[in-house]
Amino acid sequence: MSSGSIAQIILDAIWFVLPAYVANGGAMLTGGGPALDGGRFFLDGRRILGDGVTVRGTVGGIVAGAVTGGVQGLIGSDPENGLVLGLLMGAGAMIGDSAGSFLKRRLGLARGRPAPGLDQLGFLIAAIALASLLVSVPTMWFIVLIVLTPTIHLFTNFLAYRIGIKEVWY
């Protein structure tokens, strides 16, 4: 495999997953307001998701993913499939992020505390799982994204921290 083809695989994989990435960031930018779990507690006495997973952020993330997919579809002359794929990836990203928050609460981790791997990959894996209901995801793309996403996630979080959008760098 030539380096050009590796670069193309990386670009194709990132282009494919862009709705999930945008959904993840969109949730942070649009978040706030009532918690998705309504302040309820799980059987273990801990919050189900916590205050960090909000209705507004979840809806904002899903919409951001759908819009991104729709724009990608327009660029690729397939707006309907782009919109549906973006919606699936946005919803998957929010499901994965919520599942990560659920697990963090079970582990006793406070809101905003890091959970390496879970924080960077939960949204990605769920987004790809839902996307795979509509399209076949090449194994190489999945591998590339599992390797690159933690670095991309940390970099974008650090930028968000530096410009004052996030309270922590991770």
Shape: globular
Helical coverage, percent range:
55-70%
Taking the sheet with the most strands, its summary is: none
Secondary-structure element order, as H and E?
HHHHH
Structure, described:
The chain has 170 residues and is mainly alpha-helical. Helix content is 68%, strand content 0%.
Key terms for this structure?
5 helices; globular
Summarize the structure.
This protein has 170 residues and is an all-alpha fold. The chain has helices at 3-30, 55-75, 79-106, 118-131, 139-162.
Describe the protein's topology.
Blueprint (H helix, E strand, L loop, with lengths): L2 H28 L24 H21 L3 H28 L11 H14 L7 H24 L8
